[in-house]
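Record type: monomer structure entry
Structure origin: computed from sequence
Chain ID: A
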Amino acid sequence: MNRLVLVLGLALLSGCATVKRSHIRPDYETVDKTQVKRLVVVTQPFPDGKPEVGQLWSLVARRYVNQNRDFIARSNVALDGSPEDTSFKGLCVENLEGVLWLSPDVKRTGKGLEASVNARLIRCRDGQEVWGAEAAGSWPSEDERYQELIAQYTSELGPDVSPYVAPTFRLLSATLDTLPRPQLNDADVDEKIELGE
């Protein structure tokens, strides 16, 4: 019994993101793969009630999907409260084709964070969900592997985001790795290069 408690304790200390569920529309390959590429990333509500942490979440997600999932995430926002319109039609402007919505639940605990996310990719043209995932985990705020990342986001967004950077990156990277990959044409690739992310 003591050994089981020790193993569970070590697992909690090391922290990991558990993707509890993810799904993609069955018609993704024939419909959305070539049509839902340009995104806005929305974090709503603010994680831990803090606007700057919402900006962190949206910025981390925007950069991650641009660099690792082939989307063209053109902008990111963080909004307070619950969304009045979960299709986010008001944000579907300037040829955007989808909204990547992150709905977080974050709590500071001692020297770390417990966090979960309900994530959805929503088509702008009809408000239908293309992809969805739920994930959760707990992590220490200080992590040697992420010191450079912590310094970068702290410099960009201020010192209040520091304890959130490593846990946010770990949770969102695991979650966003379940996103499908859109098919880009030559013009899309040029547009992505112009973004520079």
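Annotation 1: Residues 1-15 have pLDDT under 50 and may be disordered.
Annotation 2: The helical segments are 2-14, 51-68, 147-157, 162-176, 186-195.
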